[in-house]
Specification:
By secondary structure, the chain is of the alpha+beta class. It is 58% helix and 8% strand.
Length: 433
């Protein structure tokens, strides 16, 4: 079944089979003697689902699961659980320190997500801590972090795609970025201070950060209590986060599925109101639901289907991401392609493309002359020794495509203006009659 795929794609498909496995299903599990389990274990680690898969494998003990694989996953799971516990302790302590200084914070992702969605700290791999603070308290919070021996590090400023040191007192930096990463004094973990859940181009696809505070809830961790996002805000925030990273890690999709298991506790009217205010947040949520159905076999609740219908745009993006994961073992992680595919506002698309071209003119040349797309190959099937002609066909096709699109836009604008003039003149004609 997987003979034509490379090793990473084979193990990713096997991982997806295990994630979608239901009681009574037939699982295509290779004989232990004919299978090197190490690449599968590495794939689990790459997608951040080691602990979750170990828990799943407990029900398959009689299906020729290699003992070495179980032992490896078990050991890693224990390490993940211990680290999560330490991160949870640091999260409670840091939240308390900020609160004592008059700075409110909301725990986001990390141990708080693990406890809220999975009901414990053992089933989800957490790499760092994320705290949401108010933008007006950012400078004060950054000074306090520095005083507590946390070191500010480079962040990935969007959309320039190059790391730079974000200065919280620089309005331009604050506008372009969404977080400042701080490294702990012992370099054991990072703390990301967020003042929004998306940069200026992804902001419309995320929930309104100013509304998070009035809907926040308290969450009990084994080490104390923190404030965190309500389930509805968490759902939309996780969908936007996964879309921004083009769902490059299956752990993020498993988060959505586990969160949907709590859909009975959702206030769907609240989500409907949030999406009505920020319709593009509904696009990322719809994309997540389609991928959860197509890759993990989990259907969305009826309420979600009504509030977050899949459009042709989201279906096309989901299909592309699914194909990447199934054929390559992971998505391309191309944030630009995801944003442009989801963004339906022509002016915003133009601004984003223009900014990328101005910063990276070589990327435009690569897109035109180097990258051969399926649309180019669909025009004509060339033999292998003539495939170089695709690099000539592509710019010609793009010129024809965009010229045609520009002509249609001009024509529709002219027709619309003519009709508007006729409607404006009609009452005057009627009066003369």
């Amino acid at each position: 079944m997987f003979a034509t795929l490379d090793g990473r794609a084979v193990e990713t498909r096997r991982l997806l089979q295990l994630l979608t496995h239901r009681e009574g299903d037939t699982l295509e599990w290779p004989p232990a003697s004919a299978w090197d389990w190490r690449q599968f274990a590495e794939t689990c680690e790459t997608h951040g689902v080691t602990s979750f898969i170990y828990w799943r494998l407990q029900a398959l003990m009689g299906r020729a699961v290699p003992d070495e694989l179980l032992e490896h996953l078990h050991l890693n799971s224990l390490q993940i659980c211990a680290r999560n516990y330490q991160l949870a302790k640091q999260l409670v302590d840091l939240s308390s320190l900020l609160q004592n200084e008059g700075i409110s914070s909301l725990a986001y992702k990390g141990p708080a997500l693990s406890m809220a969605v999975y009901g414990g700290l053992a089933l989800r791999h957490c790499s760092d801590l994320d705290l949401v603070i108010r933008k007006e308290q950012l400078v004060r919070a950054a000074d306090l972090m520095a005083g507590w021996n946390f070191e500010a590090t480079h962040t990935w400023g969007r959309p320039q795609l190059t790391p730079y040191m974000c200065r919280p007192d620089n309005p331009r930096h604050v506008e372009q970025a969404k977080e400042i990463p701080f490294r702990a004094s012992d370099s054991a973990y990072f703390v990301d201070l967020h003042w929004c859940l998306g940069d200026r181009f992804w902001l419309p696809f995320s929930p309104d950060v100013d509304k998070l505070w009035e809907r926040s809830v308290c969450l009990d961790l084994p080490t104390g209590t923190v404030s965190t996002l309500c389930l509805e805000d968490l759902f939309l925030a996780l969908c936007a986060h996964g879309a921004r990273h083009r769902w490059g890690c299956l752990k993020w999709l498993v988060d959505i599925v586990e969160l949907l298991h709590k859909a009975g506790s959702f206030n769907w009217s609240r989500i409907e109101e949030m999406v009505r205010i920020r319709p593009w947040a509904g696009a990322t949520a719809s994309l997540a639901l389609v991928l959860a159905r197509d890759l993990l076999g989990v259907a969305a609740p009826l309420e979600a289907g009504k509030i977050l219908p899949a459009t042709a745009r989201t279906l096309a993006v989901a299909s592309a991401i699914r194909e990447e994961i199934l054929t390559r073992g992971e998505s391309s992680g191309n944030e630009n392609a995801t944003l442009l595919a989801l963004e339906g506002r022509p002016l915003q698309r133009m601004k984003y493309r223009t900014l990328l071209i101005l910063r990276y003119p070589d990327s435009l040349l690569r897109e035109i002359f180097v990258r051969v797309s399926p649309q180019d190959r669909a025009l004509t099937r060339l033999p292998k020794n003539l495939e170089f002609l695709y690099y000539i066909i592509r710019p010609v096709r793009l010129v024809a495509k965009h010229c045609t699109r520009a002509a249609r836009t001009l024509w529709s604008t002219a027709v619309g203006a003519r009709l508007a003039r006729r409607r404006a003149d009609r009452p005057i004609t009627d009066q003369r009659r």
